[in-house]
Amino acid sequence: MSDKTPNLEQIPNALGYLVLTDNQITSSWGDLENNEQIANLALRIAYTAVKVPVNPDTNDFFKRISIVVPNQYVFMMTIANKQVYLVKRALK
């Protein structure tokens, strides 16, 4: 893990994470380690979401997306510093 990657594995109930830069996995851990299928799905969701403004009167776009799998886990995604961060957390 690079010094610039936050300690995502320290997020409470974290099961795994992916960090994507330039459409490639640059860091991963746990359930999502090197998971290209989830990485590609996350990128498609992010690219679709940035096309839809949060407020039609501004140029604001999403900051975070949560995808909940009921009674199991949640995927939390954010974009910062030209990177996509995706964390899988257990629901407890």
TrEMBL record:
GO molecular function: guanyl-nucleotide exchange factor activity
Record keyword Chaperone present: no
Phylogenetic lineage: Eukaryota, Metazoa, Spiralia, Gnathifera, Rotifera
Keywords of this entry: Lysosome
GO cellular component, one term: lysosome
Superkingdom to which the source organism belongs: Eukaryota
UniProt keyword Acyltransferase, yes or no: no
Protein name: Late endosomal/lysosomal adaptor and MAPK and MTOR activator 4
Record's subcellular location: Lysosome
InterPro entries: LAMTOR4 (IPR034601)
